[in-house]
Design goal:
single chain; 3 helices; alpha+beta; oxidoreductase; FMN binding
Amino acid sequence: MSESFEAKPTSVDGATVLSTFKAALRGMASSVCVITTCDEAGRPHGMAASAVVSVSFDPPSMLISVNESASISERLKSKRAFCINVLTSKHGPIVEAFSNSAMHEHRFASTDWAQGVRGLPYLRTAQASIFCEEDGSLTYGTHTVFIGRVFEVALGDTTGPYVWHNGTRVEIQPAA
């Protein structure tokens, strides 16, 4: 089930709201993940993302938000399945590759990548790889929100998470 809603314009100064909204979001620490899928020929595709959240435990489900201009957007719509690879603090080079379109050809060059269920690429060194089948989507404004029903989870490296805060990577330390 896919739906589309028109984002209604705001009655306040859009540029001011957008600027302060972005500043507010930079203050929200987020785990960084790589969302992966494959095309009809089995070629892998992916993007770095921090707009990832659990939705429900029953059924187990996840939500990802993807900009319509992202190269992976149409592939997610046609495949209707994706893998959320939760990154560790060791994955700096992977974040760089999946955040820079000029590095597209190098994204899956590492031997840390494998082919999983339904041909979905997953990162063997991830904290977790969460395999999802699309259970619905909603296009709103510049993004499409995909709801994925979890059908498999692979747990891996327990190293600290890759966390993004205020435009940079930060280390998480246990509270004393």
